Amino acid sequence: MGSRLLLTGRAGSGKTHAILQRLMQLARNNRLGEVLLLLPTQSQVDHLRGVLLRECATAFRDDFAHTFFTFSRALSKAPEQLLPEVGKDYLLGEVLRLESLPSFDRVRETRGFRALLGGAIKELKQNAVLPEHYQRRILESLEGMDGVRPRHRDLGKALFAYQQRLAASGRIDQEDLELMALKSLESDPGLPEGKSVLLVDGFHDFTGVQLGILALLARRCSEAIFTLSFDEARPASPVFEASKATRENLLKIGLEVREMRGNRRSADPTLRRLEEGLFGNAAGLVEAGASLKLLRCARREDEVESIARRIVRLVREEGVPYRDIAVLYHDLGEAADLLEGTFRRFGIPLRIYQPRALDRHPLAGFLLDLGRTLAEGPKRETILRLLRSGYIEGLGLEEVDRLDQRIREQGAPSSGREWTDFGDDLQLPGIARWLRRLRARGERIRGKHTHDALASAWIGCFEEVALPLGEQGEDGPSECAVYREFIELLESSKVLHDGGKAQITLGRLVEVIQEGAAYATFRLQDRRREVVNAINAYEARQWEVPYLFVAGVLERQFPPAPLEDLFFNDEARRALNARGLRFPDREWRQSEERFLFYMAVTRARRRLHLSHARSDSQEAPTLASFFLREVEKLFTPESLKSCVTQRSPSEVLPVPDEMVSLDDVDRAIFQALEERILKGRIPPRIALAAALYQRRRGDPEFLARLHAALSETRPALTDAALLQDIAQRQTAFSNSALTAFLQCPYLHFAQKWMRLEALPEPQVGAVDLGQVLHGTLKDYFEGGAAGDPLVLLDRHFEQRTRARAITFRRRTDYWRLRAALVEILEAEKRRSARLRPSRFEVPFGLERESSHPAVPILSAGREEKLSGIIDRIDTDSDGKLGYVVDYKYSDPSRVRDQFKASVSGDLTNFQPAIYLLALREALGLEPVGAELLAAKTGVQRFAVGRESLEEVWGAPEKSERLGEADFEGFLGRARTVMADLIASARTGDIDTRPKDPEACGPGACDAADVCRYDRWLGGKYKGD
User: Fold this and answer.
1) pTM (2 decimals)?
2) What is the spatial distance between Cα 500 and Cα 547, in angstroms, rounded to a whole number?
C-alpha cells in the first residue's frame, strides 16, 4: 500500500478487511506499538479487537485502537480533570437556573431543553468556537440574515457562563479534551510519540477539530490509511451524499484515492443486488431469493417475539452460533427493555450496546429513598419501598407484610422514634434493628455538613444495611454498574459544591443526585462471546454478521423525523457553513439517514430480515419507512411474495415456521379442537393440528394441560386471612374499580386489593393529555373565562410533560390539544342550558381534606361507599340544581360506546349514575343530568337527564331524556348492579375471566405481567 491512502468503495468492497490485513501484518512483525487506529465508537473498538484476536494467532498489545475521545485523553495526560457527561448536565442546570437568559425563560425548566442546550454548546466547541470567538465567528456570520436572534445572543451568554463554571471547577469536558489534543499536537511536533502508522476506519463525517487533528497526524506518520464509503464511479449517488464533503476534506490533507471494487462480504445474489441498487436507478427487476425476509407484524411486541422465535430456530435447526446473529435498531433506547425481556423468556443470550437509564433501575431508586429517609426521617411510602426492595440484609418479607397491614389499620407513625417503637411493639426485630441504624445515621448528619462528609455517610449507611453487591447472578452485573455510576454522580456533583467542601444539607444533596440520576445512564460490562448482539445504526458501520435482523423500519423511526434545530435553523446553518464552520442542516441529516440505512442492511453476509410493526402501543396505525419501499423496488413483486410474512392482530399464535416449544404446539392443537369446518377438504392448519395431536396424545404432560384447558376449575384465594381482609377492609369503590371487575376479576384484584401500578411511560400518554385538558378548563372557568386559555394550556402541557421524552408525536399531541380546547370553548358558547359552570375537579369519598362524603350503597347487608372526582358541575343561579360534565379526551366512537354502556339495560359503565347520585347524596344538589363530552376529533356530547327539566340542562342532540319515574328507576337499577358487583368483589374472586379477550395481554392490560391467564387455551370461562 502507498504511504498516504484514502480507500474508497461501496459497502463490502473490503475497506475494513484491508485495515485488518495491515494490522495483522504489523502484529506478525511486532510493530503494533507503532500503530494508531481511530474508530468512531468504543464498542467498535472492542468489536474490532475481538475480530483481530480471532484472526491473529499471536498475542498483541491492545493500546493501539482508540476513539477520538480516548486518544485525546491519552494525549492530554490529565484524565482526573475530565468532567463526565452527568457533571456537564449539573453545570448546564446551574447555568439555566442562575443566568439571565430571557429567550429561554419558558423552556429553561423542561427536562429536554437542557439536553438541547448541551448539544448546541457541544456543536460550537466541536467547531473550536469558544466564548472569546462567539461574537466574531457566530454573531457576525449571522448578521447578513434577518438579523441576530435573541436566542443566538443568549446561547453565547450560556456558553460563556458554562465555560466560566467549568474553569472555576478545574475541569474540562470532552470537547475541551479534543481541543487540548489539537493544541498539544500543534505545539509539540514529536507527538504522537512512537506512532508511525495511522489507520482511520468506519467514519463518514468529522468535526472541525477532528479534521485538524487528522491533518497533523497524517503529516507526521510515515504511513496513513483512511477508509470512506464512497462510490468513485458514481459520485452523484444519493447513498454517499453524506460522505461527499468528508472525501473533499480528506483529499485536502494530501491523501491519494485508491478505489476498491466488488463485494467481498456476500456471495448471495439477492444481498449483492440490494447493495448495488439501493437508492439508485437500478435497471430492471430481479428475483428476490430466500436470503431476504420481510416481516410485517401487528405490534412491536409481536415483532420482537417473532425475531426471537426465528433466532431460536436458526440456532436449533441450522446450528448457527448466537455470535453470528445481530439485531439492529436505529435507536435501541426504546426497544432495549422489550428486547431483553423477550429474549430472556426464550433463553437467548443477548448483549445490548446501549446505555441504560439510571433512574429506572431499582437499585438507584433504593439509594435515593435511603438518602431521603436519612435526610427527612421515615415516611410511610418511602419506608415500605425500601423494605420491599429486596436489598436489605437479614430481613424477612413476612415482617414487612405484618408492618404494612398494621399501618393500613392504624396509620403510620409520625417520627423516627415512633417508627422504632412501632417495630418493637409489633415484634418485628429485623425492621426495628434496621430502623435504629437509620435513625442513628440520620441524627449524626442533621444540619449542614460538607458534601464529602454527607456522601460518605450516605454510602456508608448503604453498605451497612444493604446486601453486598456482586457480579454473580442475573442482576449482579447491572447492580454493580448502577452502583459505580451512582458513586460517579456523587463525585460529579462536587462541581456545584466547591469541589466537595461546601456546607450543605443532606436534603439538598439528595435533590441534586436525583436530578442527575434523571439524566445519567450506565453501561454493562459484558464480555461474553456466545451472545446475540443488539446494536444501533451508528454502531453498525464496523460490523458484519452472517444473520442480521433490522427491526423498527418505520417512518419517523428509521429515519427519524427531520426536525429543525431550536438554536440554529437551516438558514443560519448554511450561513455558518459558508464561513468554513461545520453545522449540518436537515438536508445533510436526511442524507446521513439514507447512508445509515444503506450501511445497516449491507452488514448481513447470508440472510437479512427487515421488520416493522403495523400499529403502535395505542393501536394507532403506523407507516412503514419509505426506505423499505426502496428495497422492494429492486425485486419483482412475485418473488417478494415469498419473502413477506404479514401478521394481522387476529393472528395471535405463531405460524408453524416460528413454533419453538411444546407450548406453541399445544396451543395450536387447543385452538383447532373447537374449529368448525365444512365437509370436504380439511384446511392445512387444522390438518397440521390433528397430526400434532396424534403425536402429542400419549404425553402425560399434554393430557394434563388438555384436561386443565377443558376443565371448569377456577383460580381462587384460599388464605382465610386474605379473604377476611378483602371482606372487611374499609374502602370506597370507584367506577374504574367496578368496570375493572366486570372486565376481569383478576384485574380488579391486582388494581384494587394488591394496588399494583404500571410503570410510568417514557413518552406522553393519553392520561397525561386528558389531565392537561382537565387542568386547563378548570383554571379557565374558575378564572371567570377571562384569561387566555391557550396560555393556560401551554403551562399545563409543559408541567405535565416536563419529564417525558421529546418526540414528534408530542408536538402533534400538543396541536391536537389546542384544537380540542378551542372547539370545546366554541361549543360552550352554543350551549343552550340555563346552568353555568361553578365547580371543578370535585372529589367525593376520597381520603383527602377537600373531599366530600362518599355515596353510601347497601351491598350484602353492609354499607359500602362510592367515590370519584367530577370534572365539572354546572349549577343554577340558586345553587340548587346540578348537572355533570365529564371531559373525555377520546375518539367520539369510544365515548359513544361508554355512554351506551352507561344507560343501556345491561349496565356495564356506571360513571353518569355514580356522579348523579353524588350530586344528591354527597353535595346536596338536585341532579338534573350528566353528560360525557368527547373532545378529541370534534366536540360531541352524550347526555342523560330528566325530561321535565330539559330546558334547564339544554339537552344535546344525542341525549337520553327520562321521565321522573324512569330517571329514578335508572339510578335505582345502577345501585342494584353496583351492589351486586361489590358483593362479588368482596368474596375475593380472582378468576381470570375477561369479558373482552382483546383487552388482555401486554400493552392492553396493566395486570398482564402478573396474570397467569392464557386467553388462547379456550375454556368455558375463558372465551374462545
Assistant:
1) 0.74
2) 51
